[in-house]
UniProtKB/TrEMBL annotation:
Disordered as annotated region, ranges: 37-65
Name of the protein this chain belongs to: EnpEP protein
Organism: Paenibacillus ihbetae
InterPro entries reported for this sequence: M1_LTA4H, Peptidase_M1_dom, Peptidase_M4/M1_CTD_sf
Active site: residue positions: E404 (proton acceptor), Y478 (proton donor)
Highest taxon, organism lineage: Bacteria
Known cofactor(s): Zn(2+)
Residues annotated for Zn(2+) binding in this entry: H403, H407, E426
Peptidase M1 membrane alanine aminopeptidase domain segment(s): 341-537
Cofactor remark: Binds 1 zinc ion per subunit.
Amino acid sequence: MVPPRAKVFLSSLLALGLLAGSMPIFLSNQGPSLSALAPNGGKPSASAVEKAPLSPPKVQPDAPAPALSDRLVEYHMDVRYEPEQNKLKGKQTVTWTHPGKRSVNELYFHLYPNAFASDETTFMKESGGRLRSDPMPENGYGSMKITNVKTTEGLGLTQRLQFVQPDDGNINDQSLAKLRLPKPVKGGESITLHLEFEVELPKIFARMGRTEDFVMAGQWFPKISVYEPAGTRGRTQEGWNLHQYHGNSEFYSNFGIYSVRIRVPEDYIVAATGFPTKPAQKANGEKIYQFYADDVHDFAWAASPNFVTAEEAYSAPGIPGVRIKLYLDPAHKDLKERYFDTAKTALSSFGKWYGSYPYSTLSIVVPPYSGNGAGGMEYPTLVTAFGANNDSPGYELERTVIHEIAHQYFYGIVANNEFEEAWLDEAFASYAEEKVMEKQYGITSNTAAQGASITSPEPLKMESWKYSSHENYALNVYTRGKLVLQGIERQVGSKTMDKIMMTYAKKFRFKHPTTTDFQKVVEQVTQSSWQSYFDQYVYGSQMADIAIDRIKTKNKGTQTHPWYVSTVNITSKGGDVTDVPIVFAFGDGKLVERTWSGKNGKVTYTLEYHTPLAWVMVDPKYTIMLENKHINNYMKAGMDPKVVTRWNLSITKLVETLFGSMSW
């Protein structure tokens, strides 16, 4: 997910201004059974729908291809959107395969729509009823209810459901539910359940819901939580990874197969994860779509009668063949070429940098402006751009689409746990986004201003809801995390960094890596230890801070033949730094350049010249990515150190106040 950029831009301007002062941003009961979604012999065919046993056979493609992932879950779903009731009504058959060794007596389901059930849910309390700059509209609540659960033998389990709150004990939060099973599931065994559910759609402000005629169904169905075997993501003992829906958190789930029928009013157009297995059909005032996707860990869809659609086939090195599909709000109907070009640019870049794109489709949904809260979000093979505000957006159109397509790799294919290590998708997508923006559009971000915005650095490997505020979550997980990656690149060079990123993306393709896994790749490629760097800047909350402490000049010559000896004391007051460029300027305009290794945390330079030293500046081109206090990088000779200290502290406090007052 990408945060709004406008305020980042404003932040950059403010930081630049301050820097300049001191130196030169989801069924009716008559409907067919779910098994009809996957008839014997292959994926849903174009033949007429027939009733079949409740327990569907395993779905495999007509021409089976090797599974790319472990496919631990299999969902068959039939969902109807009822605009008059503002509801989704669904049936689901889900099969879960136990990946561990110990028997389990319960399953856990994420019921994400319940995050919007009241002001007392964990999500609403933590977020204050808003996401990014989008507040919840008046009476915008929504919820999910599981109306029936039974086994394949017909045993009812609905009364066995229990809401749990492992993170905060908030009894008003029903975003996670435990289902006690009638008998244990042993390691390696599978269990199939049949569920019926209803979703009352919230008004869109946080990813999913409805506005006007537009529906965004993200996280709309009961989703099984992840059971992690020992060794997964560093676990010493196997078990469930269980978290509620938090104000900052996104999602984490297993790879699997999805076969989904979607019923909407007959004038609606549907965009969805995966690909349609047959043309949409109209019957009884409905339009019925059927989609299939495998080796994905989520399924999302959007619907509107107003979509302006377009489609193009595209292939390139790393992109064997993909159909790019646009579903545009009418306000952006004339911008389809920009969307196509951006998608192709992103896909071709990421295909070369991070490995081939393994799916046959990529859909881009542009919500209406009133649905902006659903914009800027990633789902497997489907991304949303920001809500259409006007017909002439700036480069934020490209930047947002590129960022979300980057998530097809970092979150989509390389599937980290977004609850616990959000930087592994957000920072990586931001890093990839900036590389494309610079290489293809010539737009370079102001990393000095971005660094200066990090006034409250916090560790990157941390549960997303434990950050001190939403602002600090965004600044650390997106911006600071991206700067950490750029800081590595500064030290190793772009070619080695490209190798690091490609190695990581390929090694953990369709796996669930951790920060430690990434660190090991960095060390493997560079053949050196990065423990200190990761301890300070990733596992810790360090930032760089290089200060010029003192300039002292003395004339050792005569009045007629002066000869000045200048002593300059420079200290690293923050995390470790390397290869620090320094410029010394003398009274007659002469410049002397030096590079400090950063060793020992401090250094003294003595320079002799016939004119006195005028000023000194550390890192004049702002190459040290993780420095956030550039205010003390410059000093004029002859200033009282006490005055400099007071002045710098005052300006630093002003910077912190300005950035602290801004929200994302």
